Amino acid sequence: MSEILGYKIFGGSKDELLTTVFQKKDKVNIISGNPEVLYNGLKDDQLQENFNDDRSIIIPDGIGVVYTSKLLRDPVREKIAGIEVMEAIIQRCDRDGKSIYLLGANQAVVENCRSKLLDKYPKLHIAGIHNGYFDIDNCESIIDEINAASPEALFVAMGSPKQDKFITKYMQRLNVRIFMGVGGSFDVLAGKVNRAPKWMLKCNLEWLYRVYKEPFRIKRLGAIPKFMWMALTDRRNCDSKK
Ligand code: UDP
After folding, report:
1. 59: which strand partners?
2. CATH code that applies to domain 2-193+220-237
3. pLDDT tens across 195-231, in order?
4. How many angstroms does the Cα of residue 96 sit away from the middle of ligand 1?
5. What is each CA distance from 211 to 34, 102, 153, 186, 227, in whole angstroms?
6. Cβ(183) to ligand 1 under 6 A?
7. Which of 76, 90, 177, 216 has its CA 20 to 30 A from that of 27?
């Protein structure tokens, strides 16, 4: 476990994470902790409270977070990509006959994502899907639908902070055990967007590939230096290293 700006970041491997998630019997919220998500959390008390809740596990899903942990001399073992965790949870649910629910992205993407998953895992129980274009403060029918389906895992792909706000608001009320915000992962699984080539993933350049493919992302990179600067100048680090 590594501590950055009061957040406890999971410091083990992906396999250890999966063991922790599946050993728990209680609800768990897996947060893909990249600098943007964590920075958004600092600006919203409810999100921050949810991220720091005992039921939350923040994974280091961004090289900005991995480097920050190293610079603070409290390193996490490795970057854990949210999309890989999502796929591992799906595999496990498929094996154990448990269901999943896909919430997010546009209608065509979420439908394609379902068919691509069923091509790969023909017996996978997808208890429901819904696109991510709705008002999260007025969505009782969606909450009822998810509760009726009561899936083991709910993947929410609405980007940050919308997906995290949705989970924070409804986690208590939803009959779901594993919650996970997965950003643009449905676009990747549906084949709309590719992940970076392997060599770029290896060199920690996935962010560069995503900006090259979708230049509007460049603005969002600003969260990385802001987050790192805040972390490196945070008094709590200075105090704890004394
Ligand atoms: N999205 C959504 N509802 C919204 C806004 C966005 O479902 O109101 C979806 C969008 O279609 C895309 C995903 O959220 O599938 C955006 O994820 P993004 O790429 O921003 O996330 P990242 O992977 O960068 O965290």
Report:
1. 32
2. 3.40.50
3. 899 999 888 888 889 888 889 888 888 889 999 999 9
4. 29
5. 15, 26, 30, 18, 19
6. yes
7. 76
